[in-house]
Amino acid sequence: MKYNTVTLSRFETVVAALHSLGGQARPAEIAEEVRRLFPGPHPDSLLQSVRARIQECSSDSNNWKGKRDLFYSVHGIGGGVWGLRAMDPLNPANEDGIADSAEAYMAEEGAATLRTHLRRERSRSLIDRFKQQLTSYACSICAFDFATTYGEIGHHFIEAHHKIPVSQLQPGAKTKLEDLAAVCSNCHRMLHRAGGISVDDLKGRLQS
Predict the structure, then answer these.
(1) Nearest to 78 by CA among 95, 96, 94, 61
(2) What is the DSSP string of 41-90?
(3) What is the Cα Rg of the chain in Å?
(4) Torsion of CA 199, 24, 98, 87, to 10 degrees
C-alpha cells in the first residue's frame, strides 16, 4: 500500500512510521521508515524534522505546542526512544485524529498496537523494580553492556522484555519479575521483529 504524500502532514507520517515499526522507535529509525513508506525526495534534514514533529506533539517535551499529545518518551527524556500514546490518533472522533486517507489504511493495526501500550504503561512500576534488582546490566542475549561502550550515559541502562508477549496476556494477568528479561535495544527489536521468538531461541541463533 502506497501513501499519498500530498494528503499526509508531517506529524501524520511520523505516526504512520511508528505504527509500522511496532509503536516504539528511535528518531533515526522513524526517519528511515518514513523514507521507506513515502518514496520520493526527502530533505537532508528529515531526521531533524522527525525530532521536531515528535517534540511539538508530546507533552514530555519542552517544545510541546500544547495541542496534539501523540507521543511519549519511553525511557524518559534523553532515553532516545519514542512511542505512541494510549489514545487513538486514528479515531476521527478524537480531535487529534489524523486524515481519513491514512485512517482507512492504519486504523485496525493501530488499535491493536495502542492497546499494547496501555498495558505497558500500567506495568511501568514492575519494569522499574525489575531493573533495580539486576546485578548486571549486560544484555542477556548478546552480553552488550551500554556502560562499557558509552561510559557514564550508559550506566544502568537496559531494556526489559516480556517473555510472554504483552499482547497475549489475558485481562488481569499478573506479570512477575522472572517473566522479564534484560536485553539491549538491538536484541529487543529482533525479538519483536521475529514475531514471538523466545530469548533462548534468539541467543541460540546469535551463537550459531
Answers:
(1) 61
(2) ---TTHHHHHHHHHHHT-TTSTT--SS---EEETTSTTS--EEE-SS-TT
(3) 18
(4) 80
Q: Which is it for the CA torsion 19, 25, 28, 32, positive or negative?
A: negative
Per-residue burial over 192-201, b = 16 or more CB atoms within 10 Å of its CB, e = otherwise: beeeeeebee
DSSP class of 169: P
d(CA 113, CA 118): 9
pLDDT for 99 equals: 39
Residue listed under C-alpha cell 499529545: 69
- Axis crossing angle, helix 100-122 with helix 124-132, rounded to the nearest 10: 50
Domain chopping of the chain, boundaries:
10-117, 124-207
SS3 assignment, position 3: coil
Query: Which residues, in sequence order, are bridge partners of residue 181?
Result: 161
Within the chain, residue ranges assigned H as helices are: 10-20, 27-37, 46-56, 100-122, 124-132, 146-150, 185-193, 199-207
Local confidence band at 120 (pLDDT 50, 70, 90 cut-offs): very low
Q: Cα dist. 3→12, 96, 109, 110, 148 in Å?
A: 11, 20, 16, 16, 42
Percent of the chain surpassing pLDDT 90? 25
Q: Residue 182 phi/psi, 5° resolution?
A: -85, 120
